[in-house]
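[09:14] KT: can someone run the structure on this one? pasting the chain below
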Amino acid sequence: MQRPGQDPVAKDDVPWWMKYAGRGLGTVGSIIAIFLGAWNCASILFGQIDCLISGMWQMIAGFLVVMIEAPCCCLFIDFVQNLSDWVEKKPYWNRAAVYCLIALPAVFLCPGMSSIFGSGLIFTTGIIYGLMSLGKKAPFGEMRTTAMDIQAPSSSMRTVLVENTQPIGVSTPTSTPASIV
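[09:31] RB: done, structure tokens below
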């Protein structure tokens, strides 16, 4: 039974240091990404339009991440706390997917060191949240027992997924009719 106001996804099995690593890297990394995005925007002086667009994208991505991870940095915007609370109620994999996806276009548009480093920090934050969504590892004894089990899911998966299959080496070749040869 879920209590009122309780998260729909149990997030208690995530280590405390991983929660702080995700939030800290998201905050610091997005602020760095904003400054490096502004540096990319300065490339318009050399006529590089793609780096200008990349810098603007990186600044928007950094601002979005800082709004979600550290709403205290954006007190001047009314809806930031509501957005941050709404994202906190979602599973970790949602945040991981969004962070990884919004980090990529800036690198593809202008593959310079400032976009790779700035967007890489946002992407790494997404990786940390992806690892948090996997949850805790099983105890050593349970993992060892599962690995040594003959009836492991990987050996019985073949019969569940596809009925009436034969291994490739067992199938007999069909003979060709004489009229075709």
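[09:33] KT: thanks! Residues 13 and 136 are 6 Å apart (CA to CA).
[09:34] RB: yep, looked fine to me
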